[in-house]
Prior knowledge:
By secondary structure, the protein is of the alpha+beta class. The chain has a single domain, classed as Histidine kinase-like ATPase, C-terminal domain (Heat Shock Protein 90). The chain has helices at 3-9, 20-36, 40-59, 103-110; strands at residues 11-15, 65-70, 75-82, 113-119, 122-130. Strands 1-2-3-5-4 form a five-stranded antiparallel β-sheet. The longest helix has 20 residues, at 40-59. It is globular and about 35 Å long.
Amino acid sequence: MSDDERLDAAASLSLPPEPASAAKARRFIADLCAATQMPSELCETASLLVSELVTNAIIHGKTSATIEVHRPPDTLRVSVRDDSPALPPVGARPTLSAESGRGLTIVSVLADAWGIEKVDSGKAIWFELRLG
């Protein structure tokens, strides 16, 4: 079985609601990228975006987060689930002095596609990056 086939099936990581989880999320993505020899630019973008989404889950959702990664042909799809039913404000514009509120803007600018889905116990925010 190739690395692509193993990743296609899914990789996941559950993280506790603590600040160190964002760094663990970045390492998780970096390790997956290294194992499947994905382009470094794509990996850096995926690491940044997953960090933003995990941070949102922990700070705003006040809940643990679960990362799920799939790699269908030509795409890397990453989803971050949390147990908070509260949906993030989409399109909110933080002030220049605001310390937060830019995470989904970063995701919307850097991802090829993204979205928010309600799930049984909360929500999932996902993004996709095209390979090549």
